[in-house]
Amino acid sequence: MNKKVEDIKVEKISEEQLTELQGHVNKINQAQLQLGGLESQKHSLLHAIANMQTELSEFQNKLEEEYGKVSISIQDGTIAPLPESVEDEANKEN
Question: What is the C-alpha to C-alpha distance for residues 39 and 53, in angstroms, rounded to an integer?
Answer without folding.
Answer: 21
